[in-house]
């Protein structure tokens, strides 16, 4: 694939989502979506074997999948506390892969794939976050319904605590870092923002400012840029690094990174992509929009170390 084609794809600020539905206990049909890039395959229901080590009530069991890999099956309806789907003939299983882990989700049915702009994805309200246990990252208004975009990473992290954002514990006698840097972190997941903020601040190398999407990050960077120009100071006096998710409403992380690297003032700021979707093809897209580093969740320690190194190198 040529560089121009890759840039065209990421420059559109678009995504594709698989729309599916769950038939809830009160007869209501809820519509949900997941990024196509996280979907490996959609299959019919499979016989499952119980998994005593995974005691969450929404985990129905597990089944062997391609090459004998054992994949846990999560009832989406039960996880959202809206009843249970059941293994009927119309039910479907969506096989996903992110954070290098495959997980299966049982849904009542799959409708179609939508190609939409991130501008169409609205952040969830506080009420919606509470009602969905923090598992909804956005909503898309269609002609006759609303499609809720599920935070699959948050759901899987609930099942697999080892997949939660993690950092190495620092010994109590660890000396403070020689210098603290201000970084901007953009991620649409409220739970991930809280985790990253607490862990990076505790580590002591960064002061962290957080926003929930790429557009907010871009607007804040413009404010820093204006302040720098007004005060005749370098932009790095105001912000020294950016860590960004890729999937975000309004403006995705790839578009944000491209905007930063095309700006003659902001381009000196190191940008690191931190996403569950990092794969060889996506890593090439990150490189083509100028990202200085890219790491897959949940290893926050690696990106923290790399960001500190990048900032020190950029400051000579």
Could you characterize what this model shows?
By secondary structure, the chain is an alpha/beta fold. The protein is 29% helix and 31% strand. The strands form 3 sheets. The chain has a 6-stranded mixed sheet. Strand 15 (271-275), helix 8 and strand 16 form a beta-alpha-beta unit. Helix 6 (214-230) runs parallel beside helix 7.
Keywords:
316 residues; alpha/beta; six-stranded mixed sheet; five-stranded mixed sheet; 9 helices; 16 strands
Can you describe this structure in just a few lines?
The protein is of the alpha/beta class and 316 residues long. Helix content is 29%, strand content 31%.
Helix content: 25-40%
Report strand %: 25-35%
Beginning-to-end CA distance, first to last residue: 35 Å
Taking pLDDT < 50 over at least 5 consecutive residues as the criterion, the unreliable ranges are 1-8
Q: What's the rounded overall pLDDT mean?
A: 85
How many strands in all? 16
N-to-C SSE series?
A: HEEEEEHEEEEHEEHEHEHEHEHEH
Give the CA-based shape: elongated
Can you list the strand order of the major beta sheet? 8-1-2-11-10-9
């Amino acid at each position: 694939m040529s560089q121009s084609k890759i840039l065209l794809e990421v420059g559109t600020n678009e995504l594709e989502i698989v729309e599916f539905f769950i038939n809830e206990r009160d007869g209501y049909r809820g519509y949900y979506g997941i990024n196509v890039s996280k979907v490996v395959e959609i299959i019919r229901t499979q016989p499952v074997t119980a998994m005593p080590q995974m005691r969450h009530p929404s985990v129905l069991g597990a089944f062997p999948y391609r090459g004998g890999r054992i994949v846990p099956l999560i009832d989406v309806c039960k996880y959202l506390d809206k009843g249970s789907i059941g293994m009927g003939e119309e039910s479907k299983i969506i096989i996903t892969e992110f954070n290098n882990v495959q997980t299966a989700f049982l849904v009542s049915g799959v409708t179609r794939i939508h190609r939409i702009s991130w501008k169409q994805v609205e952040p969830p309200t506080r009420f919606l976050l509470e009602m969905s246990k923090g598992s909804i990252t956005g909503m898309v208004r269609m002609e006759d319904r609303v499609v809720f975009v599920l935070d699959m990473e948050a759901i899987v992290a609930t099942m697999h605590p080892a997949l939660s954002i993690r950092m190495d514990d620092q010994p109590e006698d660890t000396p403070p870092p020689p210098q603290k840097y201000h970084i901007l972190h953009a991620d649409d997941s409220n739970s991930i923002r809280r985790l990253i903020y607490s862990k990076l601040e505790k580590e002591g190398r960064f002061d962290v400012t957080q926003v929930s999407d790429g557009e907010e990050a871009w607007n804040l960077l413009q404010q820093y840029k204006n302040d720098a120009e007004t005060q005749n100071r370098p932009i790095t006096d105001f912000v020294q690094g950016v860590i960004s998710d890729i999937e975000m409403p309004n403006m995705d992380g790839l578009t944000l990174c491209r905007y930063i690297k095309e700006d003659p003032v902001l381009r000196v700021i190191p940008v690191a992509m931190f996403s569950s979707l990092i794969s060889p093809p996506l890593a090439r897209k990150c490189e083509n929009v100028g990202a200085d580093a890219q790491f897959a969740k949940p290893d926050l320690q690696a990106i923290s170390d790399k960001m500190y190194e990048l900032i020190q190198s950029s400051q000579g």
